[in-house]
Specification:
- There is one protein chain.
- This protein is of the alpha/beta class.
- The chain folds into 2 domains: 3-72 and 370-410, Roll (Urease, subunit C, domain 1); 75-361, TIM Barrel (Alpha-Beta Barrel).
- It has helices at residues 88-95, 100-105, 110-118, 122-138, 154-170, 193-210, 228-240, 257-263, 277-284, 294-300, 307-312, 333-344, 348-355, 357-361, 391-394, and strands at 3-13, 33-42, 45-51, 61-64, 69-72, 74-76, 141-147, 175-182, 216-221, 244-249, 268-271, 289-292, 318-319, 380-383, 401-406, 409-410.
- Strands 1, 2, 3, 4, 5, 14, 15 and 16 form an 8-stranded mixed sheet that branches. Strands 6-7-8-9-10-11-12-13 form an 8-stranded parallel sheet.
- Bound molecules: N-(iminomethyl)-L-glutamic acid and fe (iii) ion (FE).
- N-(iminomethyl)-L-glutamic acid binds next to helix 3.
């Protein structure tokens, strides 16, 4: 089958002899790289790489990367790209002074997205979400997780998850699906939230599991949303169906969500804008990955999560985009990496490790994506002319991706649809 050779690569970043383990603590400041290198892909996978004096002579397609870097595709482990409509009117309300929580309390926010999604056909949702998937592949994303959570009824949660299943079927990059029925409490259940929790546990979860629609189970465990006790019940029920937890926690307060996720063995706890010594100590005694979402903090004007403290505590930091219409209407991972450096004060290498190897592990895809290693999916990008990794976050307003390669072939937007 087809082979692709990239020659004269100024810097081939994140090279490993075999699939790397999570990177934690001090080790995050290092990215193994090769200068003046080549990279050969065969049958959609990375075959081999080396220094230019050993470069193979032939391949079906040859790219020249003189003066450019090659990096593994971003591994975006937290998104909500299936949604019906933008929420720019709430964005303007926030400019006028309302907070994210005030908008949510008035029935805006997630409930606004749910109303619009309930009214939209599966077909139209699929087309819109496919467009966003193609958009982020063009931004260099090589693997992605996608959540439900704007359905908030049995029918609409299943509709969202079926859209994600259809995306999986056509996507050239790996996708993981997460069931987030407990994203908010619908208006009709405000006086009886217990009835909604029972709906999630007794009706949604069994159907999601019966159709094999999800890989993970999520809950928005935070002030004004779900309590740690409610979260625990939902996660326990999800585990009975084989769905590992991967949750939203501590975006709005020290909610106990980090500890609730850890107690149920969550793959990751995500957001963590409110994350102090107690949360960090709990993470240190667990296998759960701390995921920060800096473009959400940027867009909502809330505190940035403590990336520096997390790395200094010898933990494996993960970065993701949280692409969604309410709190992060951007899926551009290179901007996430830049924000983490600029506002969270972590080194470019630390941010890139968090958005590649560790992001892959946060989707249990560490053996397929996130590094340049033989056997990995050949999902990577050739940068525009750049000499070193620090230029990537430095040019924060520019798109670093000159050419995206997916499954060993140069990717262009009209290929998927
Ligand atoms: O990750 N925090 C909860 N859920 C999403 C956004 C929800 C929304 O506002 O639509 C998030 O920020
Ligand atoms: Fe989110």
């Amino acid at each position: 089958m087809a082979s692709l050779l990239v020659r004269n690569i100024h810097l081939l970043a994140q090279v490993h002899a075999s699939a790397p383990a999570l990177v934690r603590g001090r080790a995050m400041a290092h990215i193994p790289s090769l200068e003046n290198a080549w990279l050969l892909c065969e049958n959609g996978r990375i075959h081999s790489f080396g220094a230019m004096d050993t470069c193979p002579e032939r391949a079906d397609t040859i790219l020249d990367a003189t003066g450019r870097m090659v990096l593994p595709g971003w591994c975006d482990s937290h998104t909500h790209i299936v949604f019906a409509a933008p929420r720019d009117e709430e964005f303007v309300d926030r400019i006028r002074g309302l907070s994210y929580e005030e908008i949510a309390e008035r029935g805006g926010g997630i409930l606004n997205s749910a109303r619009r999604l309930q009214a939209m056909s599966e077909e139209a949702l699929f087309t819109a979400a496919l467009g966003r998937l193609e958009e982020v592949i063009g931004f260099g994303t090589g693997a992605i997780e996608i959540k439900s959570g704007y359905g908030l009824s049995v029918e609409s949660e299943l509709k969202m998850l079926r859209v994600i299943r259809r995306l999986k079927a056509v996507s050239p990059i790996p996708i993981k699906a997460t069931f987030l029925g407990a994203h908010a409490v619908p208006q009709a259940y405000k006086q009886d939230r217990e009835a909604y929790i029972r709906l999630v546990i007794e009706e949604m979860l069994p159907q999601v599991a019966a159709e094999g629609l999800a890989d993970y189970c999520d809950v928005f465990c935070d002030k004004g949303f779900y309590t740690p006790e409610e979260t625990d019940r939902i996660l326990e029920a999800g585990l009975k169906y084989g769905l590992k937890p991967k949750i939203h926690a501590n975006e709005l307060d020290y909610s106990g969500g980090v500890q609730a996720g850890i107690a149920r063995g969550a793959i990751s706890v995500d957001h963590l804008e409110y994350c102090g010594p107690e949360e960090i100590a709990a993470l240190q005694n667990s296998q759960t990955l701390p995921t920060l979402l800096p473009s959400c903090a940027f867009f909502l004007g809330i505190p940035y999560g403590p990336a520096r403290d997390i790395i200094d505590a010898d933990l494996p930091l993960v970065l993701a985009s949280d692409y969604n219409p309410g709190s992060s209407p951007s899926g551009r991972m290179s901007f996430v990496v830049a924000l983490a450096c600029i506002r969270m004060k972590i080194l470019p290498e630390e941010a890139i490790n968090a958005a590649t190897i560790n992001g892959a592990h946060a989707m249990e895809l560490g053996d397929q994506c996130g590094s340049i290693s033989p056997g990995m999916a050949a999902n990577f990008f050739v940068s525009r002319p750049m000499k070193q990794l620090s230029e990537l976050p430095y040019w924060f307003g520019s798109d670093p991706v000159e050419q995206m390669v997916v499954q060993g072939a140069v990717w262009s937007r009209n290929k998927t649809s």
